[in-house]
Amino acid sequence: MNKFIEGLNEAQRAPVLQKDGAMIVIAGAGSGKTRVLTFRIAHLMQQGVDPFNILALTFTNKAAREMKARIAKIVGASEAKNLWMGTFHSIFARLLRIEADKLGYPSNFTIYDSEDSQRLIRTIIKEKNLDKDIYKYKQVFSRISSFKNSLITVKAYYANPDLQEADAMAKRPRLGEIYDEYVKRCFKAGAMDFDDLLLKTNELLTRFPRVLAKYQDRFRYILVDEYQDTNHSQYLIVRALSDKFQNICVVGDDAQSIYAFRGANINNILNFQKDYEDVKTYRLEQNYRSTKNIVNAANSVIDKNKVKLEKVVWTDNDDGPKIQVNRLLNDGEEGRFVASSIFENRMNNHLSNGDFAVLYRTNAQSRAIEDALRKRDIPYRIYGGTSFYQRKEIKDVLAYLRVIVNPNDEEALKRIINYPARGIGATTLDRLILAANSYDKSIFQIIEHLHELNTGINSRTRGKLTQFATMIKSFQVTAKNSDAFVLTEMVAKKTGLVQELKKDGTPEGVARIENVEELLNGLKDFVEEQKELADATGNISEFLEDVALATDLDNATDDENKVALMTIHLAKGLEFPYVYIVGLEEDLFPSGMSMNTRSELEEERRLFYVALTRAEQKAYLTYTLSRYRWGKLIDAEPSRFIEEIDEQYKEYLMPPDELRGNSFVNPDLFGEVDKSKLRQNKPTPGVPPPAHKPSEEQLRKLRKIRPQNSQSTAKIDKEVLQLEVGAAVEHLRFGRGKVVGLEGVGQDKKAEINFENGGLKKLLLRFAKLKIL
Ligand code: ATP
Ligand code: MG
């Protein structure tokens, strides 16, 4: 037997060693499902299966990269490169490029991101003179998206009176018309939106049996991670492709199905047995990720769900510390608690920033955490916020590139036709769109034939438009002869984009130029990387595809040693030694919008299960007594999920006094809230009142934390605050260093220190715990 197989327990080995047939692995969090997929692929390859014949679908591109790297270690990098491995969207975008012409699309089709789609829908609503308060573009977009994910085409929509009636009831009787126009406009622009990547793949596989047969033969072995979160459209693709050989292995956990709101269908996992002829079902029970306390706590919560497959999850790992529940006054205090706890843990347990994650229900919660981490000089990275590629200046450059690749791309064209300003105003653009609609051409095609058409655009403006088209065409020539980096550099300079940014001398303006430089750096890397790959050319369309499909999780370089901040949805599949789950309050988590039905509430509970099971060693839960929601300070109540954790696996702790004090909140902010109540423990059924009755152990812990704090403050007063430039110091983690600069006074005094191990760091002396040498 191969050596690497020894890295699997017996239950895990079985699905790895079963070479052929349909199989499903259903197992709880951290039990090695992803590991089984990885090893299974390596094992298939060792048995002589050609990597070109293996298709592996993962939840993020990052997961795919990690899996590939793992497999490369076992079977060698050159072979691993040939695997078809990635997210549904990236894999099928690749396939569609090859087959695009069959569907009437150019192979260089653009991928519209959701912002592009929403803009286009907004345009259509406006063109049709519909009331934008009733036809809200975001709602219309999500309705269209759900149609596409259920394979309901425009035709199918019009054939279905129920759907039309539902829209009429929602006062949007003309939704079908918008859908129709949206689809037509995307097609004319040579663009597919995210949902099209799946919808069109389905169309391709259904309408062209030969194409289906070709890919069935190609993908003899199919593997799917996180199968519980596949939607109908994804399900059909997998089913069609695996139909011939039926060598399909899916892994998942019904308890971690958290994307129902985006169309994920838990029945895909529940019905798998019925879909294939001879299905083997495997179960894994041993969790390798987390401590006993974490595993048991998570089990005790998910037990409250009624709809679930019965599963056993246990672990041989240590008991570990209990789940620590912390009650804070408000989000400011919550942020400070998290920052200070990370700081302490990092020091005391020799951890690095990358060992910590802060998870929240909604993106908006990150702000308070960020503020606190920044104040403590703790490096962090936010995932899922505004990603690099979503920044305006980056989108502008990318829009040029998109138009160069596909001049019919309407959304990209509208973005740059008059940016930087070249005298092509809104009226001209309106006239162009009008002409494009009436001649059934793209805007760019209209510009190319301006002199032959009656557009009502005057000759001066026509000159400018022609100039614009000439510029784009000259870039197209460059694109043919040079790589993506050279082209982008030329675009940045020749369009006047960089000069435009330079005009704005503010720090934000400078940051924007730096971002464009960063984009160029990224392109340089991309070009280098692509040169190593056999079937890639380093040209701009491949880069644009990567960008369009990059989730924010994918943009992080893996060696980044920063605290990770993200929503729980994004954290699926990941693991961190220390995890903070913040904002555990009723109406926030569970979300106020998801408490109307049992099934919604159960999905929130699964989300909490996902959050808790990310932790390897210790989990912290925090809730606050009051929180700003929709601009109002409201009384918050602890989440029911805290209560649902079995008593024996959790403990309640108050934050050390140091975090309180007068700095944490402006008393005026409290308004009508009864301030006396805030410091008291609000009785909540089932939640023991820690402030009144701390256990002996809690007291012991509290006592331990307090002297530590006062100790560090005392030390600061005497020595550290007198530090001078040139002084030699020692830091627990960064080692020895020399003070090279000082700023601020008193409590805010900071030192810039050049450490032998850690490089240049700026530390707040109050917290830095430095030894003066
Ligand atoms: P999730 O449900 O969160 O996606 P999972 O079931 O996919 O979890 P993995 O991520 O594959 O679980 O495994 C969890 C952790 O346990 C990983 O760090 C993995 O390397 C480790 N692990 C799994 N099986 C074993 C094993 N047999 N021996 C040692 N470590 C293991
Ligand atoms: Mg996994």
Distance between the termini: 56 Å
Quaternary state of the chains: single chain
Principal-axes shape call = globular
Number of DSSP strands? 24
**Low-pLDDT runs:** 660-694, 702-718
InterPro entries: DExx_box_DNA_helicase_dom_sf, DNA_helicase_UvrD-like_C, DNA_helicase_UvrD/REP, P-loop_NTPase, UvrD-like_ATP-bd
Family: Belongs to the helicase family. UvrD subfamily.
Keywords: ATP-binding, DNA-binding, Helicase, Hydrolase, Isomerase, Nucleotide-binding
EC number: 5.6.2.4
Notable traits:
six-stranded parallel β-sheet; binds magnesium ion; 24 strands; 773 residues; 34 helices; alpha/beta; binds adenosine-5'-triphosphate
Overview of the molecule:
Residues 6-291 form the UvrD-like helicase ATP-binding domain. It is an enzyme of class 5 (isomerase). ATP binds at residues 27-34. InterPro entries: DExx_box_DNA_helicase_dom_sf, DNA_helicase_UvrD-like_C, DNA_helicase_UvrD/REP, P-loop_NTPase, UvrD-like_ATP-bd. This protein is 48% helix and 15% strand. Strand 6 (221-224), helix 13 (232-242) and strand 7 (248-252) form a beta-alpha-beta unit. Helix 17 packs across helix 18. The longest helix is centred in the last third of the chain and has 26 residues, at 507-532. The protein is globular, with a radius of gyration of 29 Å. Residues 660-694 and 702-718 have low confidence and may be disordered. It binds adenosine-5'-triphosphate and magnesium ion. Magnesium ion (MG) binds next to helix 2.
